[in-house]
Design brief:
Structural class: mainly alpha
Strand order of the largest sheet: 1-2
Radius of gyration: 21 Å
Mean pLDDT: 84
Order of helices and strands: HEEHHHHHHHHH
Number of domains: 2
CATH class of the largest domain: Mainly Alpha
């Protein structure tokens, strides 16, 4: 059956993205791209279901049949958009990384007249909220070594670091870009530590522990950005 016939059979909602040609050995991993609104809604439903399944069972244990069942969709519909579990995971990760970039740029709009402690507090909370609202993100990042795109972990870190560096350049415009990048690298690692602590610390201690991390990161940035002490 020709591609045109397949498209007609599925109500013209599918089309291959022919703008780029994938290597032949990876062609089976390339998801079809929806053209019409119906296809876009279906993809959104499938990815939302996949996010739930990955978060609940982990990437390795997740099955395509479970994703289709969660989405209340025929298994054939899932395979028409995503020919493999890896394709589903990579589509989700691409969406998450795009959202991370957008959220970072949106945060820049609130930096005017923001003091350092408020910046740090908001930075930590945004990172925690991002992970909490996307529970599949951490699971997929951990499993990314299994994908044909193993660099996704470093891609996520690079986006987060760029976001932080851009914010720091507003707070300390006199510092050179190389120095801001180094400070952003350390800040990102500290924020990730705060997120890890928030996940594992006892609930009764969470507020106090996050205040300690606020203090640690604020103190570090005060000295590195040459801010006057606010303590």
């Amino acid at each position: 059956m020709t591609l045109a016939c397949k498209i007609q059979e599925y109500d013209a909602i599918l089309i291959f993205d022919l703008n780029m040609t994938a290597p032949s050995h990876l062609s089976n991993l390339q998801p079809k791209q929806p053209r019409q609104k119906r296809g876009e809604r279906r993809v959104a439903e499938l990815l939302a279901a996949a996010a739930e399944v990955f978060a609940q069972t982990g990437y390795r244990a997740a099955a395509m049949s479970s994703i289709a069942e969660k989405a209340d969709a025929p298994i054939g519909s899932l395979y028409q958009f995503f020919p493999s579990k890896e394709a589903v995971a990579e589509a989700l990760l691409t969406r998450y990384l795009d959202e991370m970039s957008v959220l970072g740029k949106e945060a820049d709009d609130s930096l005017v007249d923001m003091d350092l402690k408020t910046f740090v507090h908001d930075l930590i909370r945004r990172h925690i909220d991002f992970s909490r609202q996307r529970p599949a993100f951490s699971e997929l990042i951990e499993a990314s070594g299994l994908f044909s795109r193993p660099s996704v972990r470093s891609e996520a870190r690079a986006i987060f670091t760029r976001n932080v560096q851009r914010s720091l350049s507003v707070l300390a415009p006199a510092l050179p870009a190389d120095r801001l990048r180094q400070i952003a690298d350390v800040t990102v690692q500290l924020v990730k530590a705060a997120n890890a602590l928030n996940k594992h610390v006892a609930r009764r201690d969470a507020k106090a522990v996050m205040e300690e991390m606020d203090f640690v990161i604020s103190s570090y940035l005060e000295t590195r950005l040459n801010f006057p002490s606010e303590r």
